[in-house]
Amino acid sequence: MLVEASAGGKIGIGYTYSHAAIAHLISDSFQPLLLGIDVFASGAAWQAMLWSVRNLGRAGLCATAIAAVDAALWDLKGRLLGVRDRQHGSRQHLPDWRIRTSAPI
After folding, report:
1. Which of 48, 51, 68, 99 makes a 20 to 30 Å CA pair with 57?
2. pLDDT tens sequence across 42-54
3. Over the stretch 88-97, which tens digit does the pLDDT of each residue have?
């Protein structure tokens, strides 16, 4: 499962080996939950995802979905800061990011 998170003209990529069912979890639950959260607030994003799956169980499919989104957000932050492409980035609030999954939903 490939996850893309984008903001500020950059795209971060995360992935996991999991069932395609997590595409629904990511697009239906995580994406609306994370819209508007500061891209650089990884802890807040992770906690929000973790809290949202409390009744589903945090292990298994939920854990792989959270890991894929978390990796995409970390990659996105690196790209925004220029760590990935060696350009100087600026730390700013970028509320208009999105998540796209590779599995058809």
Report:
1. 99
2. 888 999 999 999 8
3. 444 444 444 4
Tell me how many domains the chain contains: 1
Expressed as residue numbers, the domain containing 72 is: 2-101
CATH number at residue 12: 3.30.390.10
Angle at 43 between CA 37 and CA 46, to 5 degrees: 80
Q: Helices (DSSP H) in 19-60: which residue ranges?
A: 22-24, 31-34, 42-52
Q: Give the distance from CA 13 to its chain's centroid.
A: 8
- Name the token pair of 3: 């996850």
Identify whether the C-beta of residue 99 lies closer than 8 Å to the C-beta of residue 36: no
Task: Record the pTM.
Answer: 0.77
